[in-house]
Design goal:
Two copies of one chain form a homodimer. By secondary structure, chain A is of the alpha+beta class. Chain A has two domains: 72 residues, Winged helix-like DNA-binding domain superfamily/Winged helix DNA-binding domain (Arc Repressor Mutant, subunit A); 58 residues, 2-Layer Sandwich (Dna Ligase, domain 1). Chain A is built from five helices and five strands. The interface between A and B is medium-sized, with 34 and 34 residues. Chain A binds a DNA duplex (25 and 25 nucleotides) through α3.
Chain lengths: 130, 130
DNA sequence: ATCCCTGCAAAGAGTTTGCAAGTAA
DNA sequence: TTACTTGCAAACTCTTTGCAGGGAT
């Protein structure tokens, strides 16, 4: 698993050009513009490979299909559990401190990939009151 | 949506008695012991209601079906993206500080429900090397 | 040659939904 | 008697997989 593949290349390009946290389906549609013959299963397969290679990140969603993010720069995500909106933001999370705490409490080393804030955004909150 | 229902009660009981982060399927099997006639769709429906009511929390998994957690005590989760193991731990996350940062950066108020650490546990890491 | 790759179509996992009937307030 | 609930089965969404052929090294 590491050969060249122009389909895989195209998917990674799409992810680089696209900072909208697309779903697999959305990635598929975007890649179609470059590789008009690509199949959806190839897209799914290569997304998984790119996640395994650490080139892109999977965002586990409460709502709807999972989304993906290109790791252009260290940043954090806040996700609304109601509408699924994803907010990028920068926050200096002390991974080492959390790692140490984990080691102390659960006696395991965890390689931290990301920290995700789940909550309810103000739009959904006000909708609930209506 | 708030009437009494012994099925819903039974599901909540199962969640209270069970701190193993069960999947919907596992909850179904556990509830069957109390309510031998309950159907799977009722379980799914009520899990969603209990999540909406804020009684239980949905844990968005990278691997396998989503899992649920009863909110017996404020705690954090670290989830292995490879094997799906969930580790409970305590960490004093400054929600107010993060909220303020979010407000500053994205100009939205987010009600933070939970913060989840995603990573790779040491067992999976050593397996990869084999 | 060998290994990884692809498209296609079919299958799979997990979850939601429409409906007619039942239960609570 | 109104509003919410249930079980059943079918539908649905998202993702993975087997296979036969194609491409890279």
């Amino acid at each position: 698993m590491n050969n060249y593949s122009k389909q895989r290349e195209a998917i990674l390009d799409v992810m680089k050009e696209n900072r909208t946290h697309p779903t697999a389906e959305e990635i598929y549609k975007l890649v179609l513009e470059k590789e008009s013959q690509i199949s959806k299963s190839t897209v799914y397969r290569n997304i998984n490979i790119l996640v395994d290679l650490g080139k892109i990140r999977k965002l586990n969603m409460t709502v709807g299909p999972d989304r993906y993010d290109y790791l252009y720069k260290e940043h954090s995500h806040a996700i609304c559990e109601k509408c699924g909106k994803i907010f990028d933001f920068y926050y200096d999370i002390d991974k080492d401190k959390i790692s140490n705490e984990l080691l102390k409490q659960i006696e395991k080393n965890i390689d931290i990939n990301s920290i995700i804030i789940y909550g309810i955004c103000e739009d959904c909150k006000s909708k609930n009151k209506e």
